[in-house]
């Protein structure tokens, strides 16, 4: 592992910048000499490393030099067959691995609680999705992991070519992924894993769930910026060692879908983050876990919310609180923000805190905020809050009312939520964050969905559908 301390791409950028080259090439800031505003002076030094494909800096899409070396080091660390650097986030990784795995008309098994980028990938591929209803935790009132029995039923019913799954989910919840992968491979299908929130699962520690690659997944996407110290918009796409097919297509799709001018700062941060992960010792991770316990202890004293206890199938770095009856997550989040404390996201019931891969050093400030919240929120008017019930009747396997090809040929019309009942959605309805569709494009809108949308609006949950309170776009019926 000694070679893993190297950061070849970042080292090369430093070497080039140290030469103070005169720029007669793009980008237009000329190594930080041309600033868009005087307030950007803080970026001047950073811009020296924001270079382009100069001699010796290699090419992301035809790597044969320093980028190839950096990706090879990532391949060795993550123990993959191949690892690709992504500069358009996990989104482009999800798109590329779907396009690699399925084509027009191919059947693919998809849990309903996937990220919107997966749905976009399905639409681009023209594949035929079979949606599987995830298991539902009545205590937590949210979807979790698919049932193995439902997956088996799907494979016994449809000629499924691939399955894609989110692992872990946005709350850090995992599941028996190993059994699902075994089932998928028994049917000679591919397992694709959106592990956007799990790059740190590649580290070996008793408190961390196993990574999807270590369990035998064929393709795995990991956001580097979510849990590792990489710049926003960076991710890795891994090809599993057990995958025996060609990877020419996936390289083609990455070339097609990503920028032709990839940021060297983003790529260098991927290189550096791999080295950082490789440098983490058991002692380092033990200190992080102790810090997690300390943060949880402070947050557990909050009167307006309860701490959700984690288990062996939960990422310990995701800390979830559930608002107590009479309190809203919006009020709690706003109160934390007044103390300069920003959360990952809130739902109508939950508040998610994400601990980093280093000990938290501001426990006293967090304790002060909790003490103040206990005082100020106690004075606030306590009122009943609406409980949003997501699911009542399980439908293990469902198909879209209209496939994506047909949807492209249909006209859409904007109608009120009441008028949308029993109509086919012309757009996905997506509360955000975390970006999981409540209603899928091409799905028939039922009363349960309408009720949930209205409850979320009342709970002041944000939607990516800007005019959701007025209505939604549905497929125009042919008269």
From TrEMBL:
Residues in Orn/Lys/Arg decarboxylase C-terminal domain copies: 366-458
Keyword Zinc assigned: no
Cofactor(s), names only, from the UniProt record: pyridoxal 5'-phosphate
A Gene Ontology molecular function term of the record: carboxy-lyase activity
UniProt entry keywords in alphabetical sequence: Decarboxylase, Lyase, Pyridoxal phosphate
Source taxon at top rank: Bacteria
The Orn/Lys/Arg decarboxylases family 1 pyridoxal-P attachment site domain, residue ranges: 8-310
PANTHER family referenced in this protein's UniProt entry, alphabetically: ARGININE DECARBOXYLASE (PTHR43277), DECARBOXYLASE, PUTATIVE-RELATED (PTHR43277:SF3)
Family that this chain belongs to: Belongs to the Orn/Lys/Arg decarboxylase class-I family.
Protein name per its UniProtKB record: Lysine decarboxylase
Lineage: Bacteria, Bacillati, Bacillota, Bacilli, Bacillales
């Amino acid at each position: 592992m000694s070679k893993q301390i190297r950061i070849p791409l970042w080292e090369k950028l430093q070497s080039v910048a140290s030469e103070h080259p005169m720029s007669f090439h793009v980008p237009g800031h000329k190594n930080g000499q041309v600033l868009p505003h005087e307030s950007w002076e803080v970026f001047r030094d950073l811009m020296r490393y924001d270079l382009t494909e100069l001699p010796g800096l290699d090419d992301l899409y035809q790597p044969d030099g320093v980028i190839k070396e950096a990706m090879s080091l990532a391949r060795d660390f993550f123990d993959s067959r191949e690892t690709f650097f992504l500069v358009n986030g996990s989104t482009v990784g999800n798109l590329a691995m779907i396009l690699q795995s399925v084509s027009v008309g191919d059947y693919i098994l998809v849990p309903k609680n996937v990220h919107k980028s997966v749905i976009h990938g399905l639409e681009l591929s023209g594949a035929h999705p079979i949606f599987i209803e995830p298991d539902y935790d009545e205590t937590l009132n949210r979807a979790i992991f698919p049932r193995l029995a439902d997956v088996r039923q799907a494979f016994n019913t449809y000629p499924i070519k691939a399955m894609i799954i989110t692992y872990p989910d946005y709350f850090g919840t995992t599941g028996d992924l190993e059994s699902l992968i075994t089932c998928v491979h028994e049917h000679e299908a591919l397992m694709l894993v959106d592990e956007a929130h799990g790059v740190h699962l590649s580290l070996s520690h008793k408190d961390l769930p196993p990574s999807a690659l270590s369990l035998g997944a064929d393709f795995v996407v990991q956001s580097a910026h979510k849990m590792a110290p990489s710049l926003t918009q960076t991710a890795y796409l891994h090809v599993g060692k057990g995958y025996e097919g060609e990877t020419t297509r996936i390289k083609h799709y990455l070339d097609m879908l990503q920028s032709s001018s990839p940021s060297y700062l983003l790529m260098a941060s991927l290189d550096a983050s791999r080295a950082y992960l490789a440098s983490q010792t058991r002692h380092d991770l033990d200190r992080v876990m102790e810090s997690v316990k300390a943060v949880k202890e402070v947050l557990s004293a909050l009167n307006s919310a309860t701490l959700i206890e984690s288990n062996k199938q939960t990422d310990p770095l995701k800390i979830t609180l559930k608002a107590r009856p009479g309190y809203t997550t919006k009020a709690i989040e706003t109160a934390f923000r007044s103390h300069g404390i920003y959360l990952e996201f809130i739902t109508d019931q939950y508040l998610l805190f994400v601990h980093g891969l280093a000990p938290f050093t501001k426990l006293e400030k967090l304790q002060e905020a909790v003490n103040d919240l206990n005082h100020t929120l106690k004075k606030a008017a306590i009122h009943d809050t609406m409980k949003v019930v997501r699911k009542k009747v399980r439908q293990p396997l469902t198909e879209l009312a209209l496939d994506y090809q047909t949807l492209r040929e249909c006209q859409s019309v904007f109608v009120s939520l009441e008028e949308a009942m029993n109509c086919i959605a012309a757009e996905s309805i997506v509360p955000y964050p975390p970006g999981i569709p409540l209603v899928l494009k091409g799905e028939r809108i039922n009363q349960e969905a309408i009720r949930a949308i209205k409850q979320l609006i009342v709970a002041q949950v944000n939607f990516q559908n800007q005019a959701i309170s007025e209505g939604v776009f549905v497929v125009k019926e042919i008269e």
